[in-house]
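Weekly modeling sync, notes
Attendees: AB, CL, MP (scribe)

Item 1: holo prediction request
CL wants a bound-state model with iron/sulfur cluster before deciding which constructs to order. AB pointed out that an apo prediction alone won't tell us much about the pocket. Agreed to run with the ligand included and paste results into these notes for async review.

Input as submitted:
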Amino acid sequence: MKGLDCTKPLSLYVHVPFCSRKCDYCAFYSLPLSCVREGEISHYLDTVIKEIKAMNAEWKKPYRTLFIGGGNPGILGYEGIKRIAEAASEYGRPDESTAELNPENIDGEIEELSGSISRISVGIQSLNEKTLRRLGRNASAERSLEALRILSTSSFRWNADIITAVPGESVSEALSDIETAASFNPGHISYYCLTFEEGTPLIGREKPVGEDEETEFLIEGWRRLKELGYEHYEVSNFAKKGERCMHNSVYWNLGQYIGFGPGAEGSVGYSRVTSMRDSESLEEFLSNPELTCTPLTETETEEEFLLASLRTSDGISLEEYRKRFGRDFLSVYSERIPLLAPDTYIIDSSFRLTEKGFLTLDWIILTLAMGL
Ligand code: SF4
């Protein structure tokens, strides 16, 4: 592939565009099973595997990480997930292979995946029945607890996803979700605010919580997660020691990755890899899975670097910035940094945001990027 840098590691993302049915808040590209034609799932699997094998023939080395996300990869069954993971292991297993699963897809047979998958990310979202119904989730609170029990005694590293600031939810209910999930000892917890996306059933039916209330959900949730021993290493992600997600770190460090499946993107060298298709569509992906590579301009690369790095607690290493762009970060941004509130950032060997900075991340990035 044009632009691929063979001296750097490469990761793979596989987008599985199927769900049992659509959750009420979701704007990701995925088809509910009621809209999937017969044979389409196996056609999709064969196409993705063929594309991965074509990439293997070019790369001829193990990939750094693999992430099978969606949609709901659980729709493929353990067998389908294993086929993808095995195709991506032709030259050796990636250092980390993650599969996203919904609670209803996790059962006592989960160890079937252990030879090919090392990490599971489970979309719990909430353990409160009322909140789950508001979100239009499939699994009940009881089924979600069962999934947590199974994972807690499994051989996998694992993550629990929690959504917060749901209309009608109280801060104490959000904290109770965190505490219950943490009692099963996942190495990693993702804690996100609910976003209202255009075109979803949630819009018009519910009213988003106010900005101050949302800030309280975040501050209180972050505090409790840290008390429970999780490091706040990215705006929405928390990990016990040694349990950071390697795959997502590839995105945050502007590493190389290629996305397979409808709507999946990638990034190699200083280029963005996209499909040649006009829209996210399973049909178009099946008829033309080819990817195309568009070089980024220097300004676009720097914007992406700011966007990705400032999400992490490590921030921008001043040395790494100089190596990457051949300039001194503090000189480039000397007129923009003083516009930020002093308690939102720290400067030592890196430029990084405090939790107060995380709360105004978009504004900070905009302020810095306007200087480019
Ligand atoms: S399971 Fe995930 S991808 Fe599928 S509709 Fe629900 S939130 Fe969206």
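Recorded for review: The CA atoms of residues 232 and 238 lie 5 Å apart.
Action items: CL to compare against the apo run; MP to circulate these notes.
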